[in-house]
Amino acid sequence: MSERIAVQRAQPDTLIEASGVSAGYGKMAVVRDIDLRVDAGEVVALLGANGAGKTTTLLTLAGELTPLEGEIRFLGEPTRSAMHVRCRNGLGYVTEERSVIMGMTVADNLKLASVPAAVACEYFPALARVLDRSAGLCSGGEQQMLSLARALGRDPKILLADELSLGLAPIIVAHLLKTVRAAAKERGVGVLLVEQHVRQALTIADRAYVMERGRITLSGTVDEVAGQLDKIEAAYLTGSP
Asked: More exposed terminus of the chain, fewer Cβ within 10 Å: N or C?
């Protein structure tokens, strides 16, 4: 990696934190009493079944949803600022829907995000051959590489990533997760990774939270969580009793 990517900046140890947060849509809480934090240089996995509240949690941390109760701290300070303000101050967010403009070329997508093509191709060399291609004509893997390159190329302090692996081949997923892990290790980026594939997520994570029905029901280091992997997959991810 280049010196530009390898450099680390002084920043708070805890980059984003939720304390007693309940949030949802209108006055209806979807997630309740959430305590969660992401520190600089670590990857934290947020695991759980569809409908458990993972995406709602990310949207609240990002500023798209306002907490009904509790507090969000961003870069060490309480905040109720909107998402665009947090993004301007160091938040990167890769949504479940790939964050690209399908009618624009890959190169123009990068230009719109103020990310040099050379930087994007340093993360993902495969993008070099599709720079002039419409993003809508790229494969799902290429679109997700573009989404992640757009986010990481802006030098975020904290990255929220929602289901990077959705619908992708295992070899592509491994490359995406390796890039996320490198951003944490080499640049001190704090990463919160929402992922249905527990075993894949735990290969790169430092800590994990497990959600069920809007609440965090288990948290710990990867080793601690891996010790209950069968229970997690049965109760939370497959829906079996």
From this structure: C
Same domain, 145 and 181: no
**Judgement on whether residues 129 and 232 belong to the same structural domain of the protein:** no
Confidence label for 50 from pLDDT (cuts 50, 70 and 90)? confident
What value, to the nearest 5°, has the Cα angle with vertex 37 and ends 31 and 41? 140
Residue 232 vs residues 42, 96, 187, 226: alpha-carbon distances, Å: 22, 22, 31, 9
pTM for the structure as a whole? 0.89
Cα 148 from Cα 138, distance rounded (Å): 14
Residue 68 belongs to a domain with what CATH number?
Answer: 3.40.50.300
d(CA 137, CA 140): 9
Q: What's the whole-number average pLDDT of the chain?
A: 90
> What total of structural domains would you count in the chain?
2
65-79 in b/e form (b: 16+ CB < 10 A) is: bebbebebbbbeeeb
Q: Do both 17 and 48 map to the same domain? A: yes
pLDDT single digits (tens) 14-29: 999 999 999 999 989 9
- The closest of 162, 114, 171, 179 to 139, measured between CA atoms, is 171
Are 168 and 179 in the same domain?
A: yes
Residue of higher predicted confidence among 227 and 91: 91
Q: Please, what is the end-to-end C-alpha distance for the chain in angstroms?
A: 46
